[in-house]
Amino acid sequence: MTTRRDLVLYELYVRAFRDANGDGHGDLRGVIEKLDHVASLGVDILWLLPISPSPLRDDGYDVADFRAVHPDYGNLDDLQALLDAAHARGLKVITDLVLNHTSDDHPWFQASRRREDGKDDWYVWTDDPTRYAGTRIIFTDSETSNWTFDPVRGQYYWHRFFGHQPDLNYDHPDVRAEMLDTVRYWLELGVDGFRLDAIPYLFEREGTNSENLPETHAFLKEVRAAIDRIAPDAFVLGEVNQWPVDTLPYFGDGHDEMGYLFHFPVMPRLYRALAEGHAESIRWILERTPAPPEGGRWVVFLRNHDELTLEMVTEEERALMYAAYAPERRMRLNVGIRRRLAPLLGFDRRKLEVMHGLLMTLPGTPILYYGDEIGMGDDVTLPDRHGVRTPMAWTDAPGVGFTDHPAPYQPPVADGPGGYPSANVAAQERDPNSLLHWVRRLVTTRRTLPALAPGGRFAVLDAGDPRVLAVHHVGEGAHVVAVHNLADARASVRLRAPIEGPWRCVWSDEATRHDGALDRGSLTLDLPPYGYAWWTTG
Ligand code: BGC
């Protein structure tokens, strides 16, 4: 029997990672130069934010051509070279694919607004901007309506995101065909899968909230079938920012829609639990998280390229999160917090460790966000989400090893504990106790634990102390028990092990010594503030 193990993803913004040609913008050749760093983290899959031509008013989610590479990032040969170099290291590469909308620069929109080229109805046009009134606005800080008037056509067009991002009209068969061709195009180039952006919003229907419609699921099944015909092993990850019960249908039967889906609501509750020093909110959401059908898998993360979304929390939780993590108004965006992981956690190494440990032991496939492995800071003086998309700090040289250009697309973060003088890869490589080395050890340890692989079973255990989250995974004939103390106070764990053992401790904070402690089927252990330990059988 082959032992299965779980994958770990690494999300990176090409523009921010490494500028190989010295023009101030990161590029695909730059990613190739830094693949050894990515591989050294022990991750399996690189997720590239959108790489297609775009005016970059939404950092590439505003696509102007679905079948090419943004000239700042390189060309299709560079992409091929990246795929080859990644594959040679055993890494897969998935790209973002934006199905829902385009940029208003896209030639399809330009033709549609002029009623040319048979594209009159490729977008959602109306004379009546009260249509679909039941549909919420997502970018609440910048948009007041999902309709924008186009003076060229003399009609309103529909958009779920920025006004410069018109939604495609999925009721039009040519749009559906074109987007299925786009899916095939990238797979034939050799990409290993997709992160499918904003999939709940493809269709609109009066009298609904225009989310999760049956028509949307039907089209996503077509997308999956098109993928499977070319690349049955492709990694297909859908972005659905909803409650688990509403997200679950996007797995389909486990094989005919998304293979992977982000679990959004668990994420803010990790931060809430940490702020409260109490594990209950994590337990609460995990108990409301259905197991995906066979073939499906949740995907979990601490941070990403967007604001830390607070859409899937209560009013009360939102207030608590803002007070704890975004005390200044400028740290907030839409319904969320536009900060990076390390600043959110006050650059407290103990909190960084306990949160990473939780991430790695939740029931799901984890994602790391570039820069978080070195505790990189953010820049809240930059607009929108730019402050969490700054250049990766490789060294403390001018240009931070990101670029030789005197004026990079954005300044690197310079100040504070997350500034490049201390938070850079080279410095952390030299220090065996750095966060970077610690993250590597964490991911490497996780890779040795087949109980965490997809298809296993998961349960929250009674830890005997409300400060502590205790979880149990079983799969591939092995068990894992992990305890994490969310509080800035010692915790007394009293745990009944799910089986007698023998148990082996594989991971713990510095201070916790407990080898064999689970052996007799129960555990009594004092955990230091933010302390943690994992055990495994087999
Ligand atoms: C992406 C955002 C983007 C939006 C519109 C999201 O789900 O993660 O970065 O702005 O889609 O495309």
Describe the structure.
The chain is of the alpha/beta class. It has 3 domains: 9-100 and 170-446, TIM Barrel (Alpha-Beta Barrel), CATH 3.20.20.80; 101-167, Oligo-1,6-glucosidase, Domain 2 (Oligo-1,6-glucosidase, domain 2, Alpha-Beta Complex); 456-536, Golgi alpha-mannosidase II (Immunoglobulin-like, Sandwich), CATH 2.60.40.1180. Helix content is 26%, strand content 17%. It has helices at 14-17, 28-33, 35-40, 76-88, 107-113, 173-189, 214-230, 244-247, 266-276, 280-287, 315-325, 341-344, 349-361, 425-430, 435-447; strands at residues 9-12, 45-48, 92-98, 125-126, 147-150, 155-158, 193-197, 235-238, 260-262, 297-301, 308-309, 336-337, 365-369, 457-461, 468-475, 478-485, 491-496, 504-508, 522-527, 532-536. The protein has an 8-stranded parallel barrel. A 5-stranded antiparallel β-sheet has the order 14-15-16-20-18, covered by helices on one side. β5 and β6 form a beta hairpin. α6 (173-189) packs parallel to α7 (214-230), α9 (266-276) packs across α11 and α13 (349-361) packs parallel to α15. The mean pLDDT is 96. Bound molecules: beta-D-glucopyranose. Residues 58, 61, 98, 161, 197-198, 239, 305-306 line the site of beta-D-glucopyranose.
What keyword list fits this structure?
538 residues, five-stranded antiparallel beta sheet, Oligo-1,6-glucosidase, domain 2, eight-stranded parallel beta barrel, alpha/beta, binds beta-D-glucopyranose, 3 domains, TIM Barrel, Immunoglobulin-like
